[in-house]
């Protein structure tokens, strides 16, 4: 990956082909993969010291939705990083969870089983869990896969609000047609950082070609079809 510095108050799109290292980047930030060299610092500290300041929203396919948990249970999980071992959730934690559910427009679903919801509703619940944690850094892995357009717009609305409050948001994203509208900055990856910077000046045809290489014929075909 080499050197990467992220600024607060921006939404970053992490762009690259399958197997490019996007998930590895997230794992490195989360301290879940050993580094050959170098280190990851979050606001000048290690992930161990700043774990509660970082939230990760995985792809829905990586979540066991058969586990018996209500929507409220899922959202309250966002409070556990702030708790000591065996410390119980309190009334304030529950108020924060309700507030997050209301912000995502699913407070009426709080007593439903998470596995009973639609894909869009489930993703709203996972974003509500992230909000409930009140982090400074959001990591989201393809959050728009399998959701309806209304939910996609809602998620972006909330994430833009978080960025406006000084939070940093990283989103692994594969739909190249929406990159310019969604992200303030892009990180273009293919086994290494190909380019990083403001979306307008960085998400160029030249950098797209350098990033996707052998997949360019397919991308051009998709572009012509308007997909």
How would you summarize what this structure contains?
This protein is α/β, with parallel strands linked by helices.
What report would you give on this structure?
It is built from 10 helices and 6 strands. With 227 residues, the protein is an alpha/beta fold. The chain has one domain: 3-Layer(aba) Sandwich (Rossmann fold). The chain has a 6-stranded mixed β-sheet, sandwiched between helices. The two termini are 30 Å apart.
Could you outline the blueprint of secondary structure elements for this entry?
Layout: E1 11-15, H1 22-30, H2 47-50, E2 54-57, H3 71-76, H4 91-103, H5 119-133, E3 137-141, H6 149-164, E4 168-172, H7 179-182, E5 185-189, E6 193-198, H8 199-202, H9 205-212, H10 216-225
Parallel strand pairs: 1-4, 1-5, 2-3, 3-4
Antiparallel strand pairs: 5-6
Helix pairs in contact: 4-5
Key descriptive features of the protein:
227 residues; six-stranded mixed β-sheet; 39% helix; Rossmann fold; disordered C terminus; alpha/beta; 6 strands
């Amino acid at each position: 990956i080499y050197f990467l510095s992220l600024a607060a108050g921006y939404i970053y799109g992490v762009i690259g082909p399958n197997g490019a290292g996007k998930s590895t980047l997230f794992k490195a930030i989360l301290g879940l993969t050993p580094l050959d060299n170098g280190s990851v610092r979050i606001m000048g500290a290690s992930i161990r010291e700043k774990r509660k300041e970082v939230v990760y929203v995985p792809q829905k396919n990586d979540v066991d939705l058969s586990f018996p948990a209500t929507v409220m249970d899922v959202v309250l999980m966002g409070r556990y990083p702030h708790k000591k071992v065996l410390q119980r959730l309190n009334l304030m934690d529950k108020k924060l969870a309700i507030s997050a559910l209301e912000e995502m427009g699913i407070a009426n679903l709080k007593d439903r089983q998470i596995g009973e919801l639609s894909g869009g509703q489930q993703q709203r619940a996972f974003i509500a869990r992230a909000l409930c944690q009140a982090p400074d850094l959001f990591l989201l892995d393809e959050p728009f896969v399998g959701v309806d357009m209304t939910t996609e717009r809602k998620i972006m609305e909330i994430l833009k609000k978080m960025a406006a409050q000084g939070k940093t948001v990283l989103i692994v994203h594969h739909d190249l047609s929406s990159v310019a509208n969604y992200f303030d900055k892009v990180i273009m990856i293919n086994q290494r950082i190909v380019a990083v910077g403001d979306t307008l000046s960085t998400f160029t045809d030249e950098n797209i070609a350098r990033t996707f290489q052998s997949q360019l014929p397919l991308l051009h075909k998709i572009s012509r079809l308007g997909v």
